Amino acid sequence: MCYQRSFAIVDFTDGPPTVRLDHARLAAEILLWAEPLARDRLSAFWGAAARESGAGKTLADLHWRAWRCALSNLPHGAVASRRDLAILARGAGLQADIVEDADEAVIDEIAEVIIARFRRSPARAKDYTKALVLTAAGLLAPAPAARAA
Hints:
Layout (H helix, E strand, L loop, with lengths): L1 E4 L2 E4 L6 E4 L1 H27 L3 H19 L3 H17 L6 H20 L4 H19 L3 H5 L1
Helix pairs in contact: 1-2, 1-4, 1-5, 2-3, 2-5, 4-5
């Protein structure tokens, strides 16, 4: 039996109650404080990768939109944004795997913030890290059409 209160799920099924923080709530919190830092990282990454500054800004904005959708638990928006990002990157003459490199830059940035911000609260840092990992796994998973191919 589980009861949900605000941002935690209390599970009584296996002995003493354990609390699992709600992934969606934590991901939404990450979105609030990580957006400016992750956007800066993406702007620097795509600005260096793209030949034209306008293309770099557009790529960075579109890539952040995919992350914002993923952190907001909007998987269809994340998939559509990633598809558009891949098309735009190819159109700019960039290799397909560059999107993964940019994703790694975002993951690194957010992980660094989690480590620094929650240094005195390892359990909280662990919960945020799990939310980041789950979000990244959902964002980076191949689309259903790609898996079927």
